[in-house]
Amino acid sequence: MVERAPRVFYVPNEFGGFLQLGFRDPLQALAKTGAIAALEAFSVLNAIRSGEDPERSRDELVRRVREFRPDILLMQHLGHTGLRRHHFAALREACVSDFIYHEADPYSRFLHPLPPEARNAGRAADVVFTVGKGVFRDNFRRAGSRDVRWVPSAYEPGRSENFDRAIRTDRPYDVVIVANKNRPRLRGLPNWRDRIRFVELMQEHFGGRLAVFGRGWDGPTAKGPVPFEEQDSAITSGWISANWDHFADEDSYFSNRLPISLAAGSIHATTEHVGYDGVFGPATGKFLLRGSGPEALVEEIDRVLANTSVDERLAAITAGRRFAAEHFRQDDLMVHMVNWRTQWIDPVAARSVWPPHGGGHR
After folding, report:
1. pLDDT over 90 for what percent of the chain?
2. pTM
């Protein structure tokens, strides 16, 4: 562990009223305790979308980082910012020690390719963290990234009070799906047909026991879109939350739907992926249902509902919530990323200042 606290400059992916609480809250908490010596944050995306001149906003980012001279420059998902190679070269030069890039959005190679800003950031950064071990990681390696590491998708403990509430016992539905229907005219996200097939099978099999939240669905099970801030309440209106991934072939990938569902308090059913056995041990089978195809996942959901009591489901949900708190809190994972090469921050000490959301993490 280093003998001095680091200076951290954070560039979040946020604009308008949406803030990256999973990074902002713990960074500010660590700064208050002195574990971070100085902290500054600037969203170039927010500046541009607020009407500021784009090129001046990009130059302003470089100017601020140069003046701040951070030990750690932490950047996230820079699509639509227009940052180019010369910007990243200047940012790398201004960073004293660790330039870290975090990309939590999924990208395929051709259908939904990595944005140019992400490629340039990955080339300049000392380390890149991404949420898949297959194509996602290869995208950055092809772009010239020197060190690409996997980090799981996470939930933000401060995003919802539900992460800290008693587990819900009133469940009007057996199963809930939170997903948008993506039926593109030309091209769309991978596996979109499988997602539609899965939802249609679920509608046929469960009828009124199912609620589907999201854009594009119709029929009696369709409940319409739900705001991101309220999706945890929608998820916990059923005993099981279900999802079919768009990136079903990506090694070790899952979206934040999985950790959010577990942390909010639900058994979760999802697509089987290569690598899951290394992420989820045998004991997770009670609260994480996996299927290699839409039909297989429907059968697994039906089996669990038919063969478990309310008490057994509540016990499984409690275990899943605990697992999410131990493995998928964004604040813990942020410290893991910051400490990728040097232990700037003591993880145990950091946990002592986190809010106690997430099902008994402390």
Report:
1. 84
2. 0.93
Please state, in angstroms and rounded to a whole number, the distance separating the CA atoms of residues 292 and 248.
Answer: 9
- Give the phi and the psi of residue 223 in degrees, each rounded to 5: -110, 0
Q: Which two tokens stand for residue 190?
A: 């991978």
User: Strand 98-103 relative to strand 148-150: parallel, antiparallel, unpaired?
Assistant: unpaired
219: exposed, middle or buried (Cβ count in 10 Å: 0-12, 13-18, 19+): exposed
Residue 63: name the closest of 27, 93, 85 by CA: 93
Residue ranges in the chain assigned as alpha helix (H): 21-33, 44-49, 54-68, 85-94, 116-124, 135-143, 192-206, 231-235, 257-264, 276-279, 294-307, 310-327, 330-338, 347-351
pLDDT one-digit tens code per residue, 251-269: 999 999 999 999 999 999 9
How far from 318 is each of 184, 263, 284, 322, 354, CA to CA, in Å? 38, 9, 11, 6, 20
Residue 24, helix vs strand vs coil: helix
Judged by DSSP in three states, 231 sits in: helix
Q: 83-101, pLDDT tens digit by residue?
A: 999 999 999 999 999 999 9
Q: Burial level of 116, CB count in 10 A (0-12/13-18/19+)?
A: middle
